[in-house]
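Fill in residues.
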């Protein structure tokens, strides 16, 4: 039986599970519509040519787009659903059951543009691992050099130490390529670890649960910063 999204949002007797499902569907709809709109704006001529040459295909596309359209009432309902989940995550009584975890952060300041120097940034957010060398030149001027490394499936579901060794090896390769290895310079590192973590300090965070297809053993409830630092120390990278 097809799911009627509009009816779900208008149902006053909606259950919590269906509300969360509706929120997920609505988010997908918004992203899908935005992506298509972006395509039309970025390549209007190409879009018009396709519209002229394949009318039967365009009819199918229009039907799909119609099913993704959301009115103002539905958007407001989505906003309320998200707000409810945030409040659930903020409450000490319901935090454990919350879908949206609202963990505290120790980051209290953001760059003001006056910083000068070189820093390294590591970003693990999914199947890709990104390493960046950021040259801060003051007056809000920066230069970026980066490289993206693939995280193999075997590493994503293997031993946790193997994952962090892989990250250290990628960092080592990047620094070697950029000729900043064994220079005697200590480079500060910023580590973006895009998984649910409970921060215990500015440079300390424990993983609460894996997401995005990762299931490495020996990492949940462990300090991911220490795991990374240990892997870097084993690789003998001066940072």
């Amino acid at each position: 039986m097809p799911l009627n999204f509009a009816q779900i949002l208008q149902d006053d007797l909606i259950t919590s599970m269906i509300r969360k499902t509706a929120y997920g569907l609505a988010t997908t709809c918004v992203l899908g519509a935005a992506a298509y709109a972006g395509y039309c704006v970025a390549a209007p001529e190409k879009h018009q040519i396709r519209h002229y040459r394949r009318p039967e295909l365009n009819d199918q596309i229009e039907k799909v787009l119609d099913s993704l359209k959301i009115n103002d009432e539905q958007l407001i309902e989505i906003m309320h659903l998200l707000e409810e989940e945030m409040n659930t995550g903020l409450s000490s009584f319901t935090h454990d059951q919350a879908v949206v975890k609202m963990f505290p952060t120790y980051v209290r300041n953001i760059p003001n543009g006056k910083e000068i120097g070189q820093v390294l940034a590591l970003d693990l957010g999914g199947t890709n691992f990104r390493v960046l060398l950021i040259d801060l030149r003051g007056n809000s001027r920066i230069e970026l050099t980066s490289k993206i490394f693939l995280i193999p499936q075997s590493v994503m579901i293997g031993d946790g130490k193997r994952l962090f060794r892989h990250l250290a090896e990628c960092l080592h390769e990047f620094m070697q390529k950029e000729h900043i290895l064994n220079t005697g310079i200590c480079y500060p590192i910023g580590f973006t670890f895009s998984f649910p973590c409970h921060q215990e300090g500015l440079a300390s965070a424990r993983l609460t649960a894996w997401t995005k297809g990762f299931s490495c053993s020996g990492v949940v409830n462990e300090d991911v910063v220490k795991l990374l630092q240990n892997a870097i120390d084993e690789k003998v990278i001066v940072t």
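The helical segments are 5-10, 16-42, 44-53, 55-68, 72-90, 153-156, 160-177, 224-235.
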